[in-house]
């Protein structure tokens, strides 16, 4: 049975001091997770301390266990779309993770990289307190959101991913192209929005919680760049044309902390991916995104 650390006076003082110093919220959460706090619990404690609320040590415990129900991803050794037959290279049920082969062709990968080279800029993340996009040292990549207005291929891939995942097309956010150079990484994080944090509110209004992610690998990385899930000891090496799928939202509205994941530093070459985040409901782009 898993045990959880006690949120005692030393932890309270440590959090309050780091909040006062202006440390990034993610760095504080990372430190708590590294010391065996449940990730959801760490998010909740931090948000309450930022709000000036007292946190009762006796009340700090693991979040309710995530309930694994019926998977959204179709089952079987091959998953079909109108223009694609994706081979299931491996899958796991807790957490729900699958690597699909032959999702993109060589030519499609090359075209997406070409589009990316013309449009990427320094990647940002959502600040958990304000909801604004900020630059942090934990994420060292260049990225750009693209849709069908940029190139017909993007619209074609959007339709393909909707068919493969069996999730409505309109629930997907715009495709996010990302480049990682030497040393580029994204430290352990969740793709879902912590609902207890104020910064998540206006993002949740644009289609509800994120419930699944698809990472498309556009090139082979010479060394490094693996996608890892540290809570379950899983590491996935980029394979050109393949797609890594994982889901983390169930019908009860829970989110799965086992989907904590990271992009390992690129040691040689560069890494190109395209990420599709999927919402529970229809995604509403901002006016400038449309």
TrEMBL record:
Cofactor(s) essential for the protein: L-ascorbate
PANTHER family: PROLYL 4-HYDROXYLASE ALPHA SUBUNIT, TRANSMEMBRANE PROLYL 4-HYDROXYLASE
InterPro entries: Oxoglu/Fe-dep_dioxygenase_dom, P4HA-like, Pro_4_hyd_alph, Pro_4_hyd_alph_FE2OG_OXY
Natural source organism: Caballeronia zhejiangensis
One Pfam family cited in the UniProt record for this chain: 2OG-FeII_Oxy_3
Transmembrane segment boundaries: none
GO MF entry, a single one: procollagen-proline 4-dioxygenase activity
Gene3D superfamilies: q2cbj1_9rhob like domain
SMART domains registered for this protein in UniProt: P4Hc
Keywords: Dioxygenase, Iron, Metal-binding, Oxidoreductase, Vitamin C
Domain Fe2OG dioxygenase, first and last residues per copy: 171-280
Name the record gives this protein: Preprotein translocase
């Amino acid at each position: 049975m898993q045990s959880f650390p006690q949120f005692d006076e030393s932890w309270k003082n440590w959090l309050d001091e780091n909040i006062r110093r202006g440390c990034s919220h993610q760095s504080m959460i990372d430190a708590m997770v590294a010391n065996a706090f449940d990730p959801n619990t760490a998010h909740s404690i931090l948000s309450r301390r930022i709000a000036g609320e007292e946190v009762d040590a006796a009340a700090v415990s693991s979040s309710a266990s995530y309930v694994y129900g019926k998977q959204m991803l179709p089952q079987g050794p091959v998953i079909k779309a109108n223009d694609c037959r994706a081979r299931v290279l491996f899958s796991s049920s807790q957490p729900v993770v699958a690597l699909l082969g032959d999702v993109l062709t060589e030519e499609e990968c090359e075209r997406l990289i070409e589009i990316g080279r013309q449009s990427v800029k320094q990647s940002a993340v959502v600040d958990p307190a304000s909801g604004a996009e900020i630059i942090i040292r934990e994420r060292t990549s260049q990225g750009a959101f693209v849709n069908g207005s940029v190139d017909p291929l993007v619209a074609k891939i959007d339709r393909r991913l909707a068919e493969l995942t069996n999730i409505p097309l309109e629930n997907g956010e715009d495709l996010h192209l990302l480049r990682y150079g030497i040393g580029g990484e994204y430290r352990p994080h969740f793709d879902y929005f912590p609902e207890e944090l104020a910064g998540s509110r206006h993002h949740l209004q644009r289609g509800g919680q994120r419930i699944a992610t698809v990472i498309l690998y556009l090139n082979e990385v010479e060394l490094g760049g693996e996608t890892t899930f540290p809570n379950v000891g899983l590491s996935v090496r980029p394979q050109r044309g393949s797609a890594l799928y994982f889901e983390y939202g169930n019908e009860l509205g829970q989110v799965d902390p086992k989907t904590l994941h990271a992009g390992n530093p690129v040691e040689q070459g560069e890494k190109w991916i395209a990420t599709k985040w999927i919402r529970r409901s229809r995604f509403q782009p901002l006016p400038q995104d449309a």
